[in-house]
């Protein structure tokens, strides 16, 4: 059964200082490993205001990419996840786009992603 676009609850409180991994749905398919290429659907919001900055759902199609090309929070947070699973990652700036002033519009921000793992290669 395909999952629908998740709604990320505004977390509030203090942002975590390290990567926080929470399984919402534990998958039963193949397990993602470091270095794999993954096919995912995801939603990303800013921790401090809950504002969505990106979502594959809005484009109407999943996306596939090698883990090693992604931000560190994804590289550390997706391995161990199984196909069919949904996982929430709360990623501090050091494991996302770096400190404020780093040149990326999300530099200095703690990010929250909900990721659905659809496939691994």
UniProtKB/TrEMBL annotation:
PROSITE patterns: FKBP_PPIASE. Its EC number is 5.2.1.8. Keywords: Isomerase, Rotamase. The keyword Isomerase applies. The keyword Transcription does not apply. It comes from the Bacteria. It catalyses: [protein]-peptidylproline (omega=180) = [protein]-peptidylproline (omega=0). One of its GO terms (molecular function) is peptidyl-prolyl cis-trans isomerase activity. InterPro entries: PPIase_dom_sf, PPIase_FKBP_dom. It holds the Pfam family FKBP_C. It is an enzyme of class 5 (isomerase). Residues 35-121 form the PPIase FKBP-type domain. Belongs to the FKBP-type PPIase family. This is Peptidyl-prolyl cis-trans isomerase. The lineage of its organism: Bacteria, Bacillati, Actinomycetota, Actinomycetes, Jatrophihabitantales.
């Amino acid at each position: 059964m395909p999952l629908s676009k998740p709604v990320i609850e505004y977390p509030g409180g203090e942002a975590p200082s390290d990567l926080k991994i929470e399984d919402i749905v534990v998958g039963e398919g193949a397990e993602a490993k470091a270095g794999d290429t993954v096919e995912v659907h995801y939603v990303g919001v800013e921790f401090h205001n809950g504002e969505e900055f990106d979502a594959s759902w809005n484009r109407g199609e999943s996306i596939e990419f090698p883990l090693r090309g992604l931000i560190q929070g994804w590289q550390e947070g997706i391995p161990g996840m199984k196909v069919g699973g949904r996982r929430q990652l709360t990623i501090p700036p050091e494991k996302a786009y770096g400190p404020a002033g780093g040149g990326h519009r999300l530099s200095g921000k703690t990010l929250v992603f909900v990721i659905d793992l659809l496939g691994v290669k």
